[in-house]
Specification:
The complex is a heterodimer of chains A (305) and B (274).
Chain A lengths: L1 H24 L6 H17 L10 H12 L5 E7 L5 H17 L3 E6 L4 H16 L9 E6 L4 H7 L3 H4 L26 E6 L5 H12 L3 E5 L4 H4 L9 E4 H15 L9 H36 L1
Parallel strand pairs in A: 1-2, 1-4, 2-3, 4-5, 5-6
Chain B lengths: L2 H25 L6 H19 L7 H35 L1 H6 L11 H14 L11 H31 L14 H6 L8 H21 L8 H44 L5
Helix pairs in contact in B: 1-2, 2-3, 2-9, 5-6, 8-9
The chains are: A alpha/beta (305), B mainly alpha (274).
């Protein structure tokens, strides 16, 4: 039955595209609302009737995965949630997958945010991912949430040399001096790896500029697709790996499940979203072809006049 | 407003109320605050649809959602600024009384003028609201611009210039783990995978040729003719491919956001998927 459900819209989409192609060849223009309708159907169909694709980690994702996988258990990782609800559909899956991986490898995580809105999204990860998947882990022992601190790059400029100066307590007001993780962490230089998930400013770029390069700390980034191309020049020297957009999240989830089969049944939003992505991209490509045909057809018509 | 507008608004209000009731009923078994939660989910769905309605044409529902978003965002960031910067960072260091009033732990420290300077600069910044003393706000603004420029200059020079330039000096015949051992060895051990020697060589050549030709395109002291012109043309292609990749990523990002909203409508609001 689901196959019928997915087949009907697919036939409608591709039938409609052929009809529009014929119209374009005849020199008729396409109403923009028709394009919106096609995109909506292309996105909605795989959500209602899931279509999944096999994903393989590309080197830029695999590098980050391997770094986390190969760090000795008990390594200390700083993870910053620098995003807002508008970016969340894209980058929250990365944050969840990275958190799961780090904790599965028994690394200690210090969570923080440079965006005020990141705090509630960090709580979402803690509440719906970490606590159900790792109920035995203790807040303050296996991970610490130091919360949000205002100051953007100013915060980075301080924590690169003295972490507790900017974050004297965790989010619950517990002094970090008494937290075991911070016994060997004085500044960002003491973290084995820094993971930054975001896409705006401050975000991964600022982490590279203000912490990664000056302190020579390895940085891994999960970024919204819009800013991913700006970050690629930093790979592999200044950023050890990048999850770019939902494709990066899907590749990471796929690698995580392959290496840690215990996560086979976890929610995989990245992989799930690749169905709508693929179909929507096919529709956009078809419209680019149709648009070009209409354009050249129109230009030829003008020349003959 | 004419009669048809009243009818449309009335229909939307009735649909909203029906959706709220149905949502609250469906949540009543699992959540104590089901009426409020039902309202919030219905409101989120209404605002999502109101924003999407702009795709058809501009309308009052879109305007309402847009203005609500701008207002709520402005209020959110203002309160965040006050509570996280002034109450969170400054007051605990300045006054035990004010710390008690705002219920934040006081951080006793010896009198330090560096905590008072931002207070004074902050007050000067607010002078912008006064026609007579507005000029005073230029001083803190100048300090902000100067400090930001100074801080960023060093960081950008290092990370975005020096390290980037040195990263461009890539070995064109490969390096560890793909050290060049001659053409014979290269052909006999040919590896077509993404991590193989061929891919590494091609990547390095693309970086070298792309950067070189891209710079040639921006070199305007010589006419772009002959070999120089051909290199410049390759530079244009490199730029176009880069812009295309950026656009492709942007499309992927926007589709992801659309998927997020449609998933919300189907899962949380309409409960069509689990």
């Amino acid at each position: 039955m689901p196959n019928v459900g997915v087949l009907v819209p697919l036939v409608a989409i591709f039938g409609g595209l052929i009809w529009l192609l014929v119209r374009a060849i005849r020199g008729r223009e396409v109403e923009r609302r028709v394009i919106f309708m096609f995109i909506f159907v292309a996105v909605a169909t795989p959500i209602l009737f899931p279509i999944t694709f096999q994903e393989h980690a590309t080197p830029v994702v695999k590098n980050l995965f391997d770094r986390i996988e190969n760090l000795p258990s008990g390594s200390t990782i700083l993870m910053s949630f620098d995003f807002d609800p508008a970016m969340a559909p894209e980058v929250q899956p990365m944050a969840n997958a990275l958190s799961r991986h780090c904790l599965a490898r028994e690394h200690k995580i210090v969570f923080m945010c440079l965006w005020a809105t990141g705090q509630s999204l960090l709580n979402t990860t803690l509440e719906y991912v970490i606590r159900p998947d790792f109920p035995h882990l203790v807040d303050g022992v296996d991970f610490v949430n130091v919360g949000y601190k205002a100051g953007n790059e100013g915060v980075l400029n301080v924590i690169v040399s003295d972490f507790k100066k900017m974050f004297p307590t965790d989010v619950n007001g517990v002094p970090l001096d008494g937290v075991e993780i911070f016994d060997k962490v004085g500044s960002c230089k003491d973290f084995d790896l820094i993971l930054t998930v975001g896409g705006g400013r401050p975000g991964p770029k600022e982490w590279v500029l203000f912490v990664g390069d000056p302190a020579d700390v390895p940085i891994g980034a999960g970024v919204a697709a819009v800013v991913a191309p700006q970050l690629y020049p930093y790979y592999p020297r200044q950023v050890i790996g990048i999850l770019g957009g939902i494709k990066g999240a899907a590749e990471y989830e796929s690698e995580l499940v392959k290496t840690h089969p215990r996560f086979e049944n976890m929610e995989k939003p990245g992989l799930r979203m690749m169905g709508p992505q693929t179909l929507a991209h096919v529709v956009i490509l078809a419209f680019i072809v149709i648009g070009n045909i209409a354009f050249f057809r129109g230009r030829r018509g003008k020349k003959t006049e | 407003m004419n009669r048809s507008t009243y009818i449309v608004v009335g229909v939307v209000v009735v649909l909203f109320l029906i959706s709220w009731i149905l949502k609250a009923v469906s949540l009543s078994g699992e959540d104590d605050g089901y009426i409020l939660r039902g309202f919030l989910i219905t409101m989120s769905a209404f605002l999502t649809l109101a924003i999407f309605s702009f795709l058809y044409r501009d309308n009052p529902f879109y305007k309402f959602a847009e203005h609500l978003f701008v207002g709520v965002s402005a209020a959110f960031w203002m309160t965040q600024g006050f509570w996280s910067t002034i109450v969170g960072n400054l007051i605990p260091r300045l006054s035990a009384g004010l710390s008690g009033f705002f219920m934040v732990p006081h951080q006793p420290s010896p009198w330090n003028i560096s905590y008072w300077i931002p207070v004074i600069l902050g007050i000067l910044l607010l002078m912008r609201l006064s026609a007579k003393y507005g000029w005073l706000s230029r001083w803190p603004l100048a300090l902000i611009v100067g400090t930001t420029a100074g801080l960023n200059f060093v960081r950008y020079l290092r990370s975005d210039f020096i390290v980037q330039v040195s990263s461009t000096f890539v070995p064109l015949l490969g390096r560890e783990p793909h050290q060049w051992q001659g053409a014979g060895a290269f052909v006999s051990q040919l590896d077509l995978s993404a991590t193989g020697q061929l891919a590494a060589l091609l990547t390095n050549w693309v970086i070298f040729v792309g950067v070189f030709c891209g710079i040639v395109y921006f070199f305007f002291s010589k006419e772009h003719t002959g070999v120089f012109g051909r290199a410049s043309r390759v530079g244009i292609w490199v730029l176009m491919i880069t812009f295309g990749a950026s656009f492709g990523y942007t499309v992927m990002g926007r589709i992801s956001l659309l998927v997020g909203r449609v998933t919300f409508l189907f899962r949380d609001w309409l409960e069509l998927i689990s």
